[in-house]
Amino acid sequence: MKSIRWTWVCRALAVCAVIGVAPAAMAQKWEFGGGVGGSFYTSRDATNNGQTAQAGIKTDIASSLWLVNNNHKNWGGEVRFDYQRGDLRLERSGTQARFGAESYTMHYDFQYHFREREARVRPYVAAGAGVKIYRGTGTESATQPLSNFAFLTKTTDLRPVISLGAGIKWQIARSLQFRLELHDYLTPFPKEIIAPNVGTNLDGWMNNLVPLAGISYTF
Amino acid sequence: MLSKISIWVAAVALSASCAVAATFGTVVPIHGTVADIAIDDSRGRLYAANFSGYRVEVIDRNSRRLLSPISVSAPPSALALSPDSRFLVIGEYQKPIGDQDQGFQTESGGLTIINLTNGGLRHIDLATPVLTVSFGIDGKAFIVTRSGAADDTGNVAPNILSLEPNTGNIAALGTVTFRSRDLPTGTPLLQLNTFPGEIIQTSAGVSGDLKKIIVLGAIENDSSATSNKSIQMLFDVPTQTLSPIGFETSPPEGPRVVSVNQTGDFAIAGWGLNHYINGDPILWAQFPDVKGKFNIGSHVIDRARNLVYANLPTETEEKVLHVLDTDNLTVRERIQVSEKLAGKSLITADGEVLYSVSISGVTVFPVGQLPQTARIGTVQEDILFRTADFCNATLLGQTLDVISLGSKPADFTLALPDGVRGVTLSATTGTTPAKIRITVDPAFFQLAKGTTVIPLKITSTTGVNLAPDVRLLINSGDSAATGRIVNVPGRLVDILSDAGRNRLYLLRQDKNAVLVYDSKTLAQIGTLRTGNTPVHMALTIDQKYLIVGNDNSQIASVFDLATLQAADPIIFPAGHYPRAIGVANGAIFAISRNAGRKSECADQTPTAALDTVFFDGRIAVAACTLDGPTNPSIFDNNLPTPDGILTASPDNNYLLLALSDGNVAQYDASVHAWVASRKDLANASGAYSAVDGGTYLVGSTVMNAAMAPAFTFADVDGSVTSGETMSGGWGIRTAATADNAPGLIQRWNTQDFSIAASSAIPEAPVTRGTLLGPSIGQIGQTILSFTRSAGASQDQLTLYALTISGVTVVDGTFGNSQPTKPLITSIVSAADNRSLPAPGGLVSIGGTGLSKTSAVFSGYPLSTLLGQTCVTANNTLVPLFFVSGSQINAQIPYEVSGATSVVVHTPDGDSPAFTVTVPEAAPAVWLNGSAGSLSGLPLVYREANGQLATGSNPVHRNSNDTLLVYLTGMGRVSPAVASGTAAPSSPSSSVITTATAALGGVAATVSEAILTAGQAGVYQIKISVPRNAPTGLTVPLTITQSGQSQSVSLRVVD
After folding, report:
1. How deeply is A1 buried, as exposed, middle or buried, from its count of CB atoms within 10 A (0-12, 13-18, 19+)?
2. Which distant-in-sequence residues (6+ apart) come within 8 Å of B192 by Cβ?
3. Strands A30-41 and A60-69, how do they pair?
4. Beta carbons of A142 and B948 less than 8 Å apart
């Protein structure tokens, strides 16, 4: 089953790449780069029997690789792969449970630059979608604090992701570009790896704010 | 070849002799039949009248060889040696006619007098056959011949003669009817298998002082030697007076042997021991169960040792020489002899040797050496094993001392009855003296909850006696029973509480004795010797005397209770044997067995009669009606059975008479008459009591003043009533549900007959059934249908019950505080508190009062007793883990299945049986796992990390997860493991009934199902998680066996 999912994800991304690549070929302006930053998640309330715990993912590092095609003076398309670390967490009144985890995000964003591509500094906004795979990596144990709210689980959880972002690109050399950006990845709450216990209400979306700085090679 | 055969034959003979029990005495075979013997102490000889050999055999006493016989011309029927040993007088029976075809001359006889000093011989012809010859202290031979025929004038020649042996002069002493059987006349017919005792039918015995001669003979022609009519005649030598008396007996008065004591006041004639009072024989005691054959059996009084040696074959004992007491024929010992005795027995003057006519000739018994002869015995008559409580499974041990009653050691063999389990002996063979450790495993007897009696038989190849069995009394005790057992060996047939003296009188029938016990200390303080086969006791109105009825004596024994000495007995009419004694104000009665005595008032011979006792005169009479001292009753004195009892009301104003055929009667002392009689019951037995003048208890039936049934107690578990007494105005009744079950004691309201209190006692009270056991050394027994097994102390705070082992002492306040008996409300698998129990599975028993304390097992093997609580499942003891008032955790024994009756036993009693179905298997996953704050988790472990499968440690379907599940209730295993024991690690025991598993409905492979090593009743199975199992938070894992399944929820993830 897992392999089938991966196949589906790869096919989807390939389609998106073709969409982006085709205009880029005409524009003959490409960016390939990567960045690092932080990963900040909002938490959700896990409510059980009138009690509430905070469920979410701890802040950690984030990294990203991207390929951007600018085939329009203001518009571009970006294929992107993000890797984030971040332990699963449950917290309530000083009690917390943590469980090693990471996530992989593949998505395609449309970018709208507020300046034409020849500009040295180009602020932009981005929006797109893709998939995010959460993966519990911790060591399982029969006991877990706050397990009456949810179980932090060593398994994978594939979720659709909506990507929203904004940033600024500086062309600091002829083929070198520096980027600062802030992305917000929205996914349905990953209830496979933070599995609410029976009776626990744990729903909604999870916001993942990722500020990062990166370098791109442009050609 | 010849020598080999000889060796083989010798070996066989040797082994055979080793297996045969030793016997006492040596047989001297004689070619012929012996009619009489005489001892010649001065010459070391024994003379034996060889009736069919026409000679007197002379036997050398030292060598036991036959010397030259003394031939006589007619069959010698009697012998006697003069006191000075000079003359041997030979009595001769009928003379042969000479012509072979003519046989014997009917009216003929003779005497041959041999002067042993000079060899002189004198012959005297007589007109009648000589029956007996005896010498008295006067030196004259006392001769009894058969009665002659009357002459023409009707006169009969004297047949009782006195002979002066020196001169041959004969003097007539009188004429008394004595008959005998003729030898063949006319055409002689050889009558095979006929012996002198059956022909002569007469014998005489002489007292030790030679002053009394007693003759027993036939009073009528009796060709078959079976006549019930006999004659007994006492001849007083100094006064030369004859005192004959004719009588009837049943059975016939055989053997035709008379043994007399030193002074002649006691003599055994036939099977009866008579005490001669003013010349009249009073049957003091008799041998029970005799056959009455004229030619079989013998007895003699050993005057020096005050003993009786007797061989009176019974249905069960033929070749046994009984050693008995002379006053009441109590059996002291039973000595094995090689053949039956068949006539007179005599003891040498020095008391060393007993010579008896026996079926082969003469048997010589060196009785003087008997004390040194090896005889087997035991110190203990009974050994009581008593568990602390019903549930106690601790092995019980006692020591049996096997001894030789003689100075020489004896080998012995001990044997338990076939099929007895739970009793082990440290040795079954040995040589005296020896101590044998007897170990009893109470587990084999716990279900009885009363006393199981096991006879331990002792035999010997070198000991000459027959030792009575030792009673092993194994009391497993009902935990709720009240009272303590005091072991009193013997056949106890009656109990009487002498409240004024704080005594208990226990009637021990096999020893013909009343055992006197201090009722406070329960120590024996005296023994009173009764007549033979005592059956019932009563106190006189003034409480000064104890009267005992004896079924094999025509006297009722009387004892002065102030001195604990025998007083003059009450003499009953000839043929009447007093059994039950009833004492009312102004009157004493006895139910007597009647042995052929005709009624004085009608042409009838009652089976039994009610005799009226005149205590001051110590005599009882048989009146025509039931009678009273002043008023005759309207009822005929003809009781249909002697199997009955008499008892008085507490004020002694009324007597109850109850017979086993259901007849009852009431005596009213105020009118001195038997006033009421009814027969509303088909039969009656068990307890009896005259509660008061208006209330009588017979068995389970309460009768009113008119003896009409007023109420019937319901039997409890088929109980048999046993005893009844009064305590504090209440009736106290005892009953037995089974011989080896606990007894029942109840307090009942004598006004409305309601049961106020009921309790178990540690063992069953005696009943007719328990008393009718095999002999414990005595000859015969008389067990009435009615039993009095209960008595009360003076303050009525203590009750006494005759029970299997002796006496059980019960607190008179029993039942005032009724303990709460345990109650089972549920039995479920201990794993999930829901599934059914299964063989070998662990269960939780829920209820109330299940244990007085809480207790936990201390290790394996599991005990079947915890905190004084035990549990049985289909009568099999259940291993226990934990007990408390509301819960018991236990293991269902592997051998139990199907509809199962479970009972909890506590000191407060037994629970009602709780029936539960125990299928072949009923798997139940343990739900006692915990993780952090979580509890009640199924014991399902992931092999991947060895931790419980929980929400935070879910089952992974894509990781080849293997689950280890712990359960109970998976049923029997192979190799089998005993219930209550921890399973071994190697080899592991596999579940026999196939188990299957499914995860979320998807079949999962069960790779192993075994008992968990080191634990009892815990199983484990291994399950491979199927890849296609569904995921989820609560995916059911279902284990199924034999149609029984259980599911637990697991979280399954990828």
Report:
1. exposed
2. none
3. antiparallel
4. yes
Residue of A nearest to B940 (CA): A142
Q: Is the pLDDT of residue A11 over 80?
A: no
d(CA B890, CA B877): 10
If DSSP codes are grouped into helix, strand and coil, which group holds residue B444?
Answer: helix
CA distances to B25, B65, B66, B353, B366 from B62, in Å: 14, 8, 11, 11, 11
Residue B518: Cβ within 10 Å count: 14
What residues of chain B lie within 8 A of the CB of A135, using their CB? none
The one-letter amino acid code at B353 reads V
Strand spans (E) along B146-208: 160-164, 169-174, 203-206
Q: B189: pLDDT confidence band, cut at 50, 70 and 90?
A: low
Cβ burial, residue B43 (10 Å; 0-12/13-18/19+): middle
Q: Which residues on A lie below 8 Å from B948 (Cβ)?
A: 142
ipTM summary value: 0.84
On the question of pLDDT at B588 being above 60, the answer is yes
Contact status, residue B497 vs residue B801, Cβ threshold 8 Å: no
With CB atoms and an 8 Å threshold, state whether B1054 touches A1.
yes
The residues near B794 (Cβ < 8 Å, ≥ 6 apart) are B499, B500, B502
Shortest CA distance to B34 belongs to which of B335, B324, B345? B345
Read off the pLDDT band of B446 (50, 70, 90).
confident
Residue pairs between chains A and B whose CB atoms are closer than 8 Å: 64
Tell me if residue B91 falls in helix, strand or coil. strand
Residue type, B341: L
Distance (Å, rounded) from C-alpha B378 to C-alpha B425?
15
- One DSSP character per residue, B467-491 reads PPPEEEEEE---TT---EEEE--S-
Residue with tokens 């484990």: B1020
- Which residue of B934, B955, B1053 to mutate against A (max A Cβ within 10 Å)? B1053
- Say if B949 is an interface residue toward chain A (CB within 8 Å): yes
Q: Would you call A147 and B1033 a contact, using CB atoms and an 8 Å cutoff?
A: no
SS (H, E, C) A38-85: EEEECCEEEEECCEEEEEEECCEEEEEEEEEECCCCCEEEEEEEEEEE
B961-990: average pLDDT: 95
CA distance B337 to B946: 81
**Least confident among A68-77, B49-58, B345-354, B621-630:** B621-630
Distances (CA, A) of B951 to B204, B225, B964: 109, 103, 16
Q: Would you say B920 and B971 are in contact if contact means Cβ atoms under 8 Å apart?
A: yes
| Residue reference for tokens 């004795």 | B513
Global pTM value: 0.76
